[in-house]
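Continuing the batch. This is chain 6 of the set; chains 1 through 5 are on the previous pages. Same settings as before, nothing changed between runs. Recording input and output for traceability.
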Amino acid sequence: MNTELRTVSGMRPTGPLHLGHYFGVLKNYVELQHKMRSFFFVADWHALTTDFNRTELLQRHVLDMVKDWIGAGLDPEKCVIFRQSDLKEHAELSLLFSMFTPVSWAERNPTYKEQQQQITTKDLSCTGFLCYPILMAADILMYRPTGVPVGQDQLPHMELTREIGRRFNFLYGDYFPEPEAILTPAAKCPGLDGRKMSKSYDNGIFLDDTFQNVEDKVKRMFTYPPRIKKSDPGCPEKCNLFPYHQLLATPEEQKEIHEGCLNASFGCVACKKIFLRYLKEFLEPLQERRASVTDQDAMEILAEGQKQAREFAQGTMEDVRRLMRLN
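Output for chain 6:
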């Protein structure tokens, strides 16, 4: 039995990545690539589940995502980076899984119900949207990982993946592992207006923003609205900016900012200046690495990743076909 430690994860290329993506997902990818064999894919098929009629910028977003990943610290020498649609094995395994996955399993997915209620500007009535958790299970189980980096909200998807793997094993023979969820540490990254940072809300600080854009955004960023004057005491726990100090500032400076905010010796303008200083130190090396990657470089990274991922995926599919008596 192969006891190699492996992980796999993907992100949908629906637009530029922001700080929330980095601290919520990418930072974990970068750490995992040094600990186990890692497969990271640009999930362009998954992007179609909600944007099937908006594909004109899809390939641009694919290349930009690779650049963002390299800028964030992913190293193609230490992990496999590929595009989901380049591996038709993913579609085949998803199709085979769909043959024995009950419809009720897909329908009970909480994200399916929530997004149908909340997203009214897109057509979510398609079978692709209903069945995307089955494709996700195929994406994951294809590489027979020991663990998968996810946020708390993705735990239902992980359990469905494990259930599909268990059902396959029961029907055709023990083959797929039951991967554990590698919980991504909670990283609160509120948007400029206090809501969740999102491209849809146009309230994000993006990894490819110029520093002039970043300065302009931070200047108009909401902090703690009840604090009108500098002499008014603040509340770091309810401030939209303080979570970023917790991510970027030193523990000593966090303590100083916290106390200064509470006793009103520290104003929001000074607080933003500290944030900008740390943000510049964080973004400059990331953007330098990103700028060094051309479109051609990104395509070559995806092509090499495709070869490595396909080699593994073909082995999985040979085993699956044999166990299902399809060969």
